[in-house]
Fold this protein.
Amino acid sequence: MNDTRQSVLNIETLGHIDHGKTSLTRAITNVWTDRHSESIKRNMTIKLGYADAVIKECQDCPEPQRYTTGDKCQSCGGKVTPLFRISMLDAPGHETLMATAIAGSSVIDAVLFVIAANEPCPMQQTKEHLMVINLIGVKNVIVVQTKIDLVTPERARQSREEIRTFLKGSTIEGAPIVPVMTNKGVNIDVLLSMLVKMEKPKRDTSSDPLMYVVRSFDVNKPGINASEIKGGVLGGAIIKGTFKKGEHVEIRPGIEQQSQKAKRDSYKPILTPIVGLNNGSEELDEAKPGGLIGVSTEIDPSFTKADGLVGHVVGRPGKMPPTQSSITFKYHRLKRPDLEEPPFKENEAVILGIGTSTLVGFVRGSKKDNIAVDLRRPVCAEAGTKIAMLRNLGQRWRLTGYGIFGS
Ligand code: ZN
């Protein structure tokens, strides 16, 4: 029996707004990622902002009809056996939030790049998301051509040509293009079959564990008895190692100490035992990289409510990267024909995406391609983490380049 408790593939959906990312996620997982629906608000999976599914296989049917995420074979109605679990994460659409999309790339194994057939390609966000794909260097990319039921066969073919032309010269020039009808489930089995054949990432489960906090919340109902209050809950992506229920962890940078004079030391790490681990549907004794993990703690829930600890890093005390308030890195400019980038100015405000943090910083100096930035809030990240850089050009925050943390 395959172990399907934790995801083998973390899949991000990218693409222009309204091109059908949410419908595609639903067609694959049968879970809506709409976070505003009251009826599903209490479900942990929804709070984590992602949807999970287990890909299953029927032994009696041919490819690709043999694959499903349902309880029985979609083709013959027969018994299916579970293969592995996948997690689908929804990416934010606005460019100011693209730092988050890139930051999330440290935990992304594959991308479904959604492009609708009923609009000319590329639309603005489609262009920006191809930039993100080029930047993060993810190889496992499937282009999903949506809304083909809204166009003539002729337009569908034309759209496919537009997509091919658009991808030319990018890192995903030869990526497969799969036309789907999400509302009728057409070709969803083809996508599942491609995910089954996709090369799976190798996970490091033995290093000192490290987790990026992606969500954090307070699970208590208003007006609850003080004696019944539950500690704060974190939703995180483990990037390496294994966390065990009951072990003590440290969270960095931590809580700001207002009484301190020295700015650099004004954040105090949080210490807590792990009270519980959850994969969104069941409790776990230990958790390793793969999908998002719910971590119950003894932290005062006022710190974790409303994503208060997003961007923090969880690890073992004494085994964590240092917290830094200023960073220096080599800046790599993106080739953007739509942007003219001026040299950096002293004290210019920039937005950086590092790990799952989005941080405001001020340029302290730049020499050739090396740039030094003072951060308004400190950051804790592992060396080698990608840094996304946004500059304010023409009254808008634009993604202009990237760097590598600690290089
Ligand atoms: Zn079957």
